[in-house]
Every structure is written in C-alpha cells, then in structure tokens.
Amino acid sequence: MDREANYVAVGAFVLLVLLMGAAFVLWYSDAADGKATQRYEIYFDGSVSGLSEGSTVRYLGVAVGRVMRIGIDPRHAERVRVVANIEEGTPIEAGTVAVLSLQGVTGLLTINLQPRSSGKAPRPPIDSLKYPVIPSEQSQFDVLVSSLPDVIARAGEALDRVNALLSDENLGAITAALGHAERASAGLPAAVEDARVMFYDLKTAANEMQTTMEGLGALSGTGGEDIKAAAARLREVADTLSQTAARFDRLVAENEGNVDRFAEEGLADFEQLLRETRSAVRSFDALTRSLEQDPSRVIYRPAPAGVEIPP
Question: For the whole model, what pTM was predicted?
C-alpha cells in the first residue's frame, strides 16, 4: 500500500506541475508584462512569409503586442488570417490599419499599426470570425514583392539584348568597321598636305598674273580698261584663294591628330571649304581659257565686230 501511495503522490505532483505550467503559458500569453490584452483579427491578401507566431506587433514603432496564430481564412483560400494579442489602451481607431514591415535586414516581418495613408482607398471590410478586425493596407514590402516578377522579367530581357548585342557576329562586325576606319584615315595626312600645296600654288599663280596685268595696264593706254577689269577679277580670285587657304590651315590645326573630331565637327566646314574652292577654281579657269583663246586682249582692245556691206 505504501508503494502504491507513493506512485499516486508522484503522479499527482507531476500533473500539478503540468497544470501550473499550462496556466503560466496562458497567463503570459494573455497578459505579457502584467498588462491586459485584447485579441484582434487581421487579414492579409497574399503571402506573409517571414511572419510567424510570436512576431511583434507595433504601433508607430512601439511594441504593443504579439502574433498568436496564423492560418488560412476558411472563407477565402488566398487570404491569411492573423490573430494578435494587443495591449489594452492602444489607440486603435476606425482609421487604424495594419501593414507588414521588414525587421531590419533579417528578412523577418512584423505588423505595424498606423493611421491609414492619405490618398489610398480603404479595402472592403472583412467580417470577423471571432474577434474585432483591424483592416490591413498594402505596404511598400507588398509592392516590392508583387513587382519582383516584372522586374526580374525586364532584367532578363535586358540581359538577352546585351547578349545579342555582344554576340560574336556583332563583335566581328565592329572590329571590321574599326579596321576600315583606321585604314581609311591612314592616308588622310598626305591628302591634307596635297590640298594645302594646291591652295598655295593657285594663290601664287593668281598673284603673279595680277602683278603682270597691273604692269601691262601701266604700259598700255589703249587696253587699260580691260586690263584693269581683268586685274580686278584676278584680285578677287586671289583673295578667295587666300581666304580658303587660311580656313584650310585653321581647319587642319584644329583637327590635326583627331580624326574623330574632324568627322564630327570639321566635316561641315570642310564641305563648305570645298565648295568655295571649286567656285574659285572655276573663275580662275574661265579667265585662263579666255586668255588662251585671245592673248592679245591683254594689251589691245578686242576688235569691234562689224557687218560687211557689199559695194
């Protein structure tokens, strides 16, 4: 009998300890830090990964409660039901909403209670199953999570375009184009020097002819007017060539050693320079042909053309 009595006493003691432990857990969960709490339901649309039982509930950043249970809303398969114990006296009003917030860089979530954001339309109210409901609001975390698939898809498209741009075929084409440009620009300095010599030769020839005609005009009295006109024309040609040569020198000085800059900035000036050069050369050529056909007009007036009248 004594041995059986001892077993009963030990069993009763163990059962009492278990009951006391359960009572302590219930007391701690319902009245943490000796404060009275009230239970609320919070419903979230979509995933709440990172939120767990025991997660902190905060009001404007201040801890005011804990998450007690997390489960799927039996009325809606894509909605999560969260039951939380919140300290009595917490200012939960009609405009208070619950949002999910990241806890530092740990990836864990907390529930933050705050006034409803201005400009955001409230979600349709959800009927409670057992406790008062605190409406939820989409947070920046929810926006980030929902936009991740689109961001990843756009990043994948961008990488595909970069890979296509940097394909072996395109890289080969770029290398070939650079090689052609290098070979094409190799003869540019020699061509520039030839053009410089051509401009100065034309200018020298025009100056010499101008000096010659001015001298002939001083010697001849009968052909002075024609000679003066020809000299004036040669003077215009010489001035044009002088200006063209000066512009060409400036162009070469600005673009020497920088073919890329020449192609971008100096090409328009070079085209204008070529047009003016062609105009000056045409004028010089016309005058030269005129003198070749009738050299005597340099000294004598051209004979007046008349009509022979038969006797």
Answer: 0.40
